[in-house]
Amino acid sequence: MSISAPMAVCLCVSLHAGSWAPIPQNVWDMKEDPAQGVKGAVVLERRMTFTGMAVQHRVRVRVLSEAGRAAVAYLGLTPESCELEGRTVQRDGSVVLYDKVGDFTGKTLSEGGDAYVQKGLVPPGVTPDCVVEVRWAELVGGGVGRQLPTSLGYSAEWRLGGRYKVLEDVVEFGSGYKWSATVLPGRGGPQPEVRNSGRTRTFVFRDLPAREEVPFSLAPLADRPVVMAWYQPELLVGQAHGNLENYWQMAARNYWEQHFKGWIKTGRAFRALAEELTAGLPADPAEAASLLLRRLDRRIRNVSFPTLAEKSSLDVVAIQADDYDARHDLEQIVRRGAATAEEMGFLFITLLEKAGIHPRLALVQDRTRSLLRLAVPNVFQMDDVLVGVPMAGRGILWLDPGLRFAAPGLVHPDYQGWDALLLDTARWQPEKGMVPIQPAAVNVSRYAFTHAFPEDAWTFQVKADFTGYPEYRQRRRFMSRSPEEQARTLKEALEKILPEATVTAAVQHASDPDANVTWSAEGALDRPGPGSFHFNPFPGMPSPLAQPASWPERRTEPVVLEHLGIQVATSEFDLPAGYRLAASEPFVQENSFGKVGFWVSSAPQGEGTRVKAVFKVEVLRPSAPPEAYREFRTFMDWIDQACRRRILLERP
User: pTM of the prediction?
Assistant: First the structure.
């Protein structure tokens, strides 16, 4: 079977008919009412329509206060978005009109450390007392019969409701929409009104309550209504409305076996590569698979995560746009010497077969995006595939061939501890399972600081090294930048934390597959006062777990941490002449979430005294029910206290 997926072409024909509807007086009469769940803003209407030609969106929001401005900060649009138009209306009737993305202002909505920054678009003219209306379309393009924008792939999911109360949330599937779709109400929440008119099916949710976004939680666990739309392969259509167990059995044998094996094309170049990469592999399957993946990672360039040189020497955009047939043509991929992360998976699985290893596959779902829904007959809902090989007496070693230059065995935290569909490639039998959570010792961040206190000054040096996911995140942060850009990025990040410091920085091994990423920096600060002073022994070091700006008083969602891990830092310096180290008690705490420690020691060295401070946090519990919220807050408070500890140097 061959499915064509060429890039959509945005032909901005008029998809919105009519002018803007008048705003009734009762909308202007609305006020904040926390008792009714109305705080900051209320979404008057949100509508999503599937026409077969486009996915149309319309949103109308009443902003009620300064805090409500965030309700109109839209996430980035898809590449196929067009026909964008909107208006911001003030109480006095004045109107600001806009009709292109350039009219909006970019805004950072949230930051999740080094690797994740969520951007939004804010319409012009927004005030604490206004109405904002925006509508746009995401056009379907390309292959015959395609029903979703190309950038969304063959399956897409949207969560309804959100941070602000929604008076009406409408989902409509028009007569022109031919793919599969379903609307899943949340458990215990409002049920939709369902309307059928000819071949048009409409779902209307009313009064969806506000669901506050709480820190250390996963959106899919918030149990909001979900819209799913997907393509059903022709060879599975007959099973889609029958017994689900039969559906997944047929999916394994008739779709995935073909997807990972039957539709794969090889030739002379691939056979030569296979002979080269499988030569001299160890007898142990896990050791052989790890070495084979390392060889493949160095031989074929993974353009899903390109280096700076590859960005200029390869047509990365064209490679990433490979259609379905091209992604299975391993012969052409080997000749090209470059592949996407998905194509690296095809290569690795096929090479394992050539080496006589029949792997297990885990079709995994990104836990930040969705649940695995085996009650929905949708083979495209999974986000990635992990490859498993047995370890003697130690279970399964899971490998992700798409994680470029990552240590073999590293699994992205978004796939750990989350339901997955497991496939045995020897029998092609599916079963529900889970990729285990990797222990804290896999993910280690180390910082080594040294300080000096010349006259009226304070200088520091720091060297940082990482393993596991922290190392991979640092690599992603720097790999596609030049050495100068790497240094500037690190310098700016440190100076953002230490605005009073002058910093120089350098990054090592960002593009070296045979060495972990490390970095170093040094800085100079003014020494506080001529007398006794406190100082931070770990300047610029990030907290092991980012502290949120505020905490809710109570929560109903489970506590979920990104990953287990250890962060350890040392800080050493010679006690400056004329000063003494003030006594301090070790700070050592522990509960079910982990351990927190900070202590200071000193010892004679030559004619002076050497002081050493140690900071260590071990995150040991990946998740917990809401009932453990207080204990988690205590753990986070310990981390905050340890990060804020200072050393006092006294002048007698």
Answer: 0.90
